[in-house]
Amino acid sequence: MAQHGTRFDVSAFDLAETVAAGTHLRQAVDGAGSTHAAAQRLADFFRTSLVDRHGEPACAQARVFLARPADRPGGQADPGWPSTGDGPLAVWEFGGADEGPRTAGPAAPHGSAPGVAGPFDSSLLLRSLRDAGLWPADGAGDPAGEIDVALLDPDGERTVQRDGTSAAVASSAPSVPEGAGRLLAFAGPVHAGHWFAVALVVDQELPARITEFFRPLAHSVRLALLSAGEHSAEARLEAAGALTASTEALVTRRASQLQSAVTELRSTSAQLRRSEDELRRRESELREEAAVVELLQEVGSALAAELDLDTLVQHASDAATRLSGAAFGAFFYNVLGETGESYLLYVISGVDRSAFDKFPMPRNTQVFEYTFRGLGVVRSDDITTDPRYGHNAPHHGMPEGHLPVRSYLAVPVVSRGTVLGGFFFGHPEPGRFTERHERLVTGIASQAAIALQNAQTYRQEREAAMELQRRLLPTLPKVDGIVTTSRYLPAARSRGAGGDWMDLIPLPDGEVALVVGDVMGKGVRAAAIMGQIRTACRAYAQLGLAPSEVLEQLSVIVDDIAPGCITTCAYAVLDRHRSRLRLAVAGHLPPVLRDAQGSVRFLDEEIGPPLGVGRRAYPEQEAHLAPGARLLLYTDGLVERRSRPIDEGLRQLRKLLAGPVGEIEADCDSWLDTLAGGQHDDDIAMLYLYRPEDSAHQTLAVVREYPPVSGAVPDARDLVSRTMREWGLGHLANDLMLVTDEIVANAVRHARTPLRVELRRSADRVVLEVTDSSTRQPRLIVSRPEEFGHRGIFLVDAIAARWGTRLIDGGKVVWAEVSTS
Amino acid sequence: MTVPHDHEAAEPRGTAPSDAALLPTPTGPTLSLVSRRGARHAVVVVEGPIDYHTTPQLLGHLTTKEMQEVPLLVLDLSKVDFCDSSALGAFVDLHRRRTDAGRAFGLAGTQPEVHRILELTRLTTVLPLYATTQQALAESQ
């Protein structure tokens, strides 16, 4: 930093100095009372506040000149600007403090005689200014009508900075006095007919671009002079505006210069391999400070918004590792299990997780205890020399094979007196962690503590609500002649319960009722009302009422149990041959039908008002469900999002259904993925139905369950191989075997729960599903892709037509699909 | 048509698998491993699928001091018709360790299905592959 209090180093003058010096300059002049007093204070300011890199005054001479045409008696117009002298110009000169003998008084016009004693002749200074176009020439009237800055050098060449352009112009004028080093000058009109000029004789070479930074300062000088002279508010406002504009211009220019510097460094580095390191260092210096500030802000807001525990801890750990400059970092955290037991999990940043997989969890050794008990931060330049290190059997220090750690930093994460976890950072070289690193990580730790607390509370509430929802939405039965599946997803960031439901009700005469509905509102209340309406709906369905009658009855019920609670519903009955569909809709989004030929339409001919508006007749419509047709009933959460109008969502849904379709589970998952993508604002219910072309092509399935042992892998492979041959699909057996092998091995390795392998065949594809019970365990995310097992997923991805995962009640499913056509 | 002793998908979808205690534990196949020592090499003829289940057996066989220190180790895979990512991980690991220690390693006689997986994962450019064991011995010494 070039700024020390109110001292500004001219050898490192930049944007920050410009702004700060301008402010200090105006403060110094504040209350001066007259233009002359202000000019004197300005001269003193430049003399004392501008310093060289050693902190010594940089200006041998600091002169402020004021001038007005002598033939215009300024005394009348401007009481702060007394008129003396005669001739074309009246000039006053003010010298800076400690320059030696000086007088503040009128200088002779035309610079013919000095009014102030100093190392250099005032007339020479004025001549140099005049030659640079900064000062009125003899009888020439006004000088340049705007503020200008020039850097003049003793060689007779000068650099003039004007409006952001820099040009070296040969000057025929006598040069600056010999030995003067550099003359930095700026000048301009104060107001009509009155000028100021500042000449700074500096002992050292100044960079040409300094003129750019002094332009806003020149505007500050003008504003200060105007303020002292009791000029109109309007004039001061105009000057202030000019100052702001000039500062803004400078900021913009500097920003683009930094940007182009970075760009240039990049392109140059490609050619100059040898200087690449140097360039990178400069670039990173430019970015480092900005990056730290940005990261801290980003981490804070990201953590505050993050409710998913796994993502949260990984994010916190990655950020803290980057900020601390550690070779690697870990975050250990406590998680409460279902039955209230606490267990310790961890994430790793900076290195592959496998570097730590083989070690047991850390224990409360003397080194770790300090952190796990939340006693405070441990920062050590070399932990192996710490008195607490190496006292615990069996390893007495780091276990063999542990990544080497010398520099060590550990920060506990504590919330309301409870230790939630701890950050640990290591580096193989000693002395890497500074107090600044400690402060940064401590900052992240306190943000992480709040976020962790939030995430845990959120998780508990969400689980309770999900449990309620599960009870309200029992599994759908299987029905002959159709294949169905359903989905229920709570809103991405909700507390887990919602008012959406779907139902599939086999009726006594072999018909089947299909229902999807949505009770407005969120949370447990909406879910409770939904439960009642759903039960009522089942009862009316069993009575064999027509769709229009069922909705009419439900409308009365809704009015009764939850007055004012708007509920929408689509209710359809499919006949025993599964070909004729009768449908009534109460304010709900229309179901969408895809016929066997692949054309798609919304069943939106007859839509009645929502339920809860009293007894009224609902219109009915009919549709034909031919073999090969598909029908989707859904709630608005699927297509509506804050960031996407509902029409756009419906268009996308139509496009998806018109596209390639296949196995219904995979269809559902991929549509959900495309339309909602985990970002849905509202809960989503879906009921999807497929009428197979004929019974010969109905889905065949093979299911087998396994304990989580490695022997499950070859066994599942054999099962799949045999089944594929039985199905006449031997040519795909190798593909399916490999996919099965990888997915089952992954479940055995990571989930470690019993698992189920299911292979299903439909008209044109085979789907493999492997189900395990591992959602309880937070997935431990590894930062880097070189994870063991990476190749397995790669193989699945390369071979399967589609694959994915979905969470289910108490577990998750990994599925993969291979096309048979 | 379903395989007789498998239960049909009668239980509701969307639930986690049942209690592990009731499930039979598949034991799985084991590899047949036959080693031949030469003065400066060892050839291990592997027979059977190399997968998540059998890879530990293979690695156990190859991490004896004798096997580790032999200047050239060739795995004869002509009787291996299946490899998965665990096997690939083991090959890559063996190759790297041996190379780091200045010792040679090779895979000989890879069958089409195994070769396909090596190609899919681009490992054909990383691992030294030979058509036959004889070729591996001839070219590596």
Structure write-up:
The complex is a heterodimer of chains A (821) and B (141). Chain A has four domains: 3-231, Beta-Lactamase, CATH 3.30.450; 293-464, GAF domain (Beta-Lactamase); 474-694, PPM-type phosphatase domain (Phosphatase 2c, domain 1, 4-Layer Sandwich), CATH 3.60.40; 699-819, Heat Shock Protein 90 (2-Layer Sandwich). In chain A, strand 1 (3-4) and strand 2 form a beta hairpin. With 821 residues, chain A is α+β, with helices and mostly antiparallel strands. In chain A, the strands form six sheets. Chain A has an eight-stranded antiparallel sheet with strand order 6-5-4-11-10-7-8-9, with helices on both faces. A five-stranded antiparallel sheet of chain A has the order 13-12-16-15-14. In chain A, strands 17-26-25-22-23 form a five-stranded antiparallel sheet, with helices on one face. Chain A contains 18 helices and 31 strands. Chain B has 141 residues and is an alpha/beta fold. Chain B has a single domain (31-140), classed as STAS domain (Transcription Regulator spoIIAA). Chain B is 33% helix and 20% strand. Chain B is built from five helices and five strands; from the N terminus they run ββααβαβαβα. Chain B has helices spanning 55-62, 65-69, 85-100, 112-120, 133-140; strands at 32-37, 41-47, 72-79, 104-108, 129-130. Chain B has a five-stranded mixed sheet with strand order 1-2-3-4-5. Chain B is globular and about 55 Å long. In chain B, 30% of the residues are buried. Residues 1-13 of chain B have low confidence and may be disordered. Chain B: Belongs to the anti-sigma-factor antagonist family. Chain B: GO terms for molecular function: anti-sigma factor antagonist activity.
